[in-house]
Amino acid sequence: MEHTSLTSENFNKLDVFIQSHLSETEGLMPILHEAQDIFGYIPLEVQKFISNRTGISVSRIHGVVTFYSQFSTEPKGENVIGVCLGTACYVKGAQAILQKFKEELGIEPEQTTSDGKFSLVATRCIGACGLAPVITINDDVYGKMDASQVSSILKKYN
C-alpha cells in the first residue's frame, strides 16, 4: 500500500535537510524529527533512506524511532488523541475516559480509525496533573475530563 506522504518530493525535502545537518555530531534526532514532520510517520522505507544518506545503520535508526514515543512507524490520524494515564489522571478516572474513546472510535490505543480521522494514544504523564484527568487532541488540552464529555469533544473534530 503506497502512502500519499511517501512521495519523491517529500524524500527530496528530507534529503535537503539531511545534507544541511550531516556535519553535526549526532544529527540523527533532528533528522528523525524532520522526517516525522514531512511524512507524518517514519516507516522502514524512510529509515532506510536516512541510513543510506547518513551511514547510520538501519538497526540503530529503528531502535531510536521505536524507543521515543514522539516517533511513529505507522501513519497517524488527522487528529491524535492522547489520554494521559499518569498517576494523577489514572486515580481520577482516566481509564474510563480511555474506554469511552475506544468505544466511540472502535479502535484500541496505538490504532487509527479506518477513515484516517483519529488515532488513539495512551500517554504517560503530560505534566498537567492539577487538571487531572487530562486528554490532548493535537495541540488542544482538555482538563478535568469526564467520560461523559468524550462524545461532544469528538464532534468538534468531525
TrEMBL record:
Q: Which family does it belong to?
A: Belongs to the complex I 24 kDa subunit family.
- Example GO molecular function term? metal ion binding
Known PANTHER family for this protein?
A: NADH-QUINONE OXIDOREDUCTASE, E SUBUNIT, POTENTIAL NAD-REDUCING HYDROGENASE SUBUNIT
Per UniProt, [2Fe-2S] cluster binds at 84, 89, 125, 129
- Where, if anywhere, are coiled coils annotated? none
CDD domains xref list:
TRX_Fd_NuoE
Recorded hits in Gene3D superfamilies, A to Z, give: Glutaredoxin (3.40.30.10), NADH-quinone oxidoreductase subunit E (1.10.10.1590)
Q: Which SUPFAM superfamilies match?
A: Thioredoxin-like (SSF52833)
Q: Describe how the cofactor binds.
A: Binds 1 [2Fe-2S] cluster.
What is the protein name stated in its UniProt record? NAD(P)H-dependent oxidoreductase subunit E
Cofactor(s) named in the record: [2Fe-2S] cluster
Q: Which Pfam families does UniProt cross-reference here?
A: 2Fe-2S_thioredx
- UniProt keyword terms in alphabetical order: 2Fe-2S, Iron, Iron-sulfur, Metal-binding
Quote the InterPro entries the UniProt record gives.
NADP_DH_HndA-like, NuoE-like, NuoE_dom, NuoE_N, Thioredoxin-like_sf
So which domain of life are we looking at?
A: Bacteria
